[in-house]
Amino acid sequence: MTHGPEPLAALVAQLRAERDGLRTAMRSRAIIEQAKGVLMARERITADEAFARLRHVSQRTNVRLVEVAARTVARAAPPPTVGRLRAAAARSSSPAENGTATAPPDRAVAGADRLAAHTRHLLTVTRVDAAAGYDDLVDALAEPGPEWPDPGAVVLALAEPDGALRVVAARGVPAELASQWARIPPQLDTPLTDAARGRTAILLPDRERVRQAYPRLLELNERLAACVALPLTRHGTLLGVVGLTWRTAVDLDHARVSYLMAGADAVARGVARLAPGTGTGGASPDWIRAMLDASVVPAAALRPRRSGTGLADFEFAWCNDLASRCADRHGVRLADTTLLTALPDTGPRELFPLCRDVLADGEPRSLAEVRLPAARTGGPDGRYEVRAARLGDLVLMSWREAPEGRPDAVRGAAGTDRFGAGGRPSGRRPAPGRPS
Fold first, then answer.
1. Are 393 and 280 spatial neighbours (Cβ–Cβ below 8 Å)?
2. One GO molecular-function annotation for this sequence (predicted)?
3. Sign of the dihedral through C-alpha 258, 199, 133, 282
4. Cα separation of 193 and 199, whole Å?
5. Which parts of the chain have pLDDT scores under 70?
6. How confident is the model at residue 109, as a pLDDT?
């Protein structure tokens, strides 16, 4: 028997078709089961009767069964909503008070179009939830529908330990450009990095807004007319960013932004499922504890706390025994507390700016001398050298007693030394849009 290239190619095509069919069935099953539940509750019928009714409508209207199911669920489930949309003050579609933006009233999606948009959204979420890889997540968002027009490009980037973004999937991006931007340093001024840095939605509905906020983008893509960048978060942890661009202006009304945000939430769930360690540099809590316990100096891992206006505080997520004993000597308890609560004197003045800046741009920093006032120590002032570095969405802080007679280091505006490779001053400009 001769096995030439043609039979082999036919076999590969058959296996790919079967694989795609299985993926389609997996995506469809969830929404069909939801539709059956809606009909069973509303009509008081059995599961088999509900499925038969869905199939009958599909055959009669010549519409795919999964779309009939999605439309059934869409009629019963409320559409996604967002109240006030946090967006970068200078980069949003509608700047408002306190650096936030409120989406304009719903104009474009109404009536029958609203049902179609919600149906398409449910299908998109179903595809995202069944995604087998990052490419599937991007493909789900790249499919046009009533909730938004056909995107010119979709990019998915994951957060790296040093604050950089690693592009893991893209559609509509030239191969050469995708290769050049495979890893985006946190210091660059781009919609993706700004969305990640500030945990805010970047909404640019037309070419003029893009030109005002990111003129460099138009040099890279002359056909760019609108873009959004949405942070992907789960349980307070930044996982990455998803960005969409269009070749025509997009009316980012309340309904469309709601669907975009809901789509980003679904993608965040998908990323968390596909890469459980994302957001902590791939490190598990057990690994972080082991690393802290192996340290020969007091050390702690701090997790950012955010409010509606941005970064508010840092909580002590983990600390080693040396850190706990050192804090106990100064009458400070690190367990179940935050940086500003535990250290109301030096926390706001020196340590919070240190951690904030490290989290913003990923640059390691140090303080040559931090003093704990005698009022807190019950004796002489405590003097410590403090170092901080970023690990995913955490800040690792270590400290030791400052040597006697050491001259104060040259400090920046935040009271910190800035170090690059080899301990030299880095000389890099502060990252734009830094959270406050």
1. yes
2. kinase activity
3. negative
4. 10
5. 1-6, 8, 11-28, 30, 78-113, 144-148, 276-284, 307-310, 373-381, 404-436
6. 44
Nearest Cα to Cα of residue 278 among 409, 177, 153, 134: 134
User: Tens digits of per-residue pLDDT, 31-59?
Assistant: 788 788 888 888 888 888 888 988 888 88
> 226-234 and 153-159: which strand pairing?
unpaired
Q: To 5 degrees, how large is the angle CA 79–CA 71–CA 47?
A: 115
What is the pTM for the complete model shown? Answer: 0.59
Alpha helices in 44-85 (DSSP H): 47-61, 65-76
Judge whether 422 and 349 are in contact, CB under 8 Å.
no
Supply the DSSP symbol for 421. G
To which residue do tokens 């082999």 refer? 8
Helix (H) or strand (E) holding 241: strand 237-246
Which amino acid is located at 146 in the chain? P
* Cα 214 to the center of its chain, rounded Å: 20
Dump strand ranges (E) for 185-236. 202-204, 226-234
- Do 299 and 292 contact (CB within 8 A), yes or no? yes
**Tokens 């340290």 found at:** 295
Instruction: Specify whether the CB–CB gap between 185 and 359 falls below 8 A.
Output: no
Question: In order of start, what are the domains of the chain with their CATH numbers?
Answer: 1-77 (no CATH), 83-274 (3.30.450.40), 285-423 (3.30.450.20)
